[in-house]
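Next comes one such specimen:
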Amino acid sequence: MKAAENGELSFQTAAGPISMRLSSDIRSAEPSWREIQETVVCTSGQTFDWALAWSEHVLLPEGRKPLVAVGYGQSGQVEFLLPFETKTVAGLTVLTWLSQDHTNYLFGLFRPDFANLLTKPDVSRVLNEVGRWVDASVAALEAQPFSWGDTANPFALLSHQAAPNSGYAVELGDYDALYHSRFKKRARQGLLRKERRLREAGALKYGWAKSAAEKRDVLEAFFTQKASQFAAMGVTDVFTPAARAFYTKLALLPEESPSRLHLGFVALDDEILATFSGTVTHGRMNILLSSLAETPFQRQSPGAQLLRYEIEDACRAGLAYFDLGVGAARHKSEWSTVTYSLFDNFVPLKPQGLALSVPYAVKGMIKRSIKSSPRLWALAQKVRRSFGRGAVERAS
């Protein structure tokens, strides 16, 4: 393998010779990125517009840069693209997937035939070269599916462990058949009864934000509702001003962009009661954001009503999947027909990287153990809510 000079190197893999280019300039990778995202099944988290918005609104204000690794085959075709970023933990540089804390599923883009031929030494070589380029001590690559579409994830060849959470999706088709298969008659009648009460209380509206003004209104409702929920739970609000700017940018992208954020809501007399928002990429609706207003109308399950509306809408639109995202929840167990097992890579790239890779691995195992135990998970939520109430009381 030739050493990287100016971000370019070449090496032999089991899938053939590869030329890899490393760059912190997102725009320089745009042609290759758009080419491969069109042909390889992915989510919005692996698309160019998403990466550009994240880099401009989150990384740049923090003085950080992305890192994109693009691999070209002998014919010049893009064979893979890996979107990364770095952060500093305990004085060490950590390599992560781009927007790792705000993306459900994280993985690189690989052409299927190429990915299937790669070996563990090939993937390790790529990762170590990327790590050397940014002087990373450890790679902490989380929430990865073992495959996506018809493409195997080569990072599963490396040392890995089960992620704390799984992903949940609904395979779409005939809506009526799906709805009847997931909900018994009594449950369906209960939802209809609650919806009728909402309609009796005022003008009920389900919809998707259309105008720029309406999009900003729905996003503001979401941010407000989520902040209240986080405070009650004793959890730090992850929707910082930078993150809010990022999601606003996604919502205002052109209609044809696979990164565009579709903002779904249910409102009563113009008061937004709940939101479910996501992106549509390769025939899949990926839910990224959801919130619920604190009102007496919570008893009528506005979130469940909205989700039912959106899944029906997705069926009518001919989408293949409605992805409910990562992490267990009641509405996911009610609707999901597909569960995705996920894994994490915690790979030391330097000897000192062990100081972080081991704690990362242990923390992940503990989180998975807690979330896999209904008793421990209920206790953890109770403790968290208790701290949240204390924080609210001290602030009042």
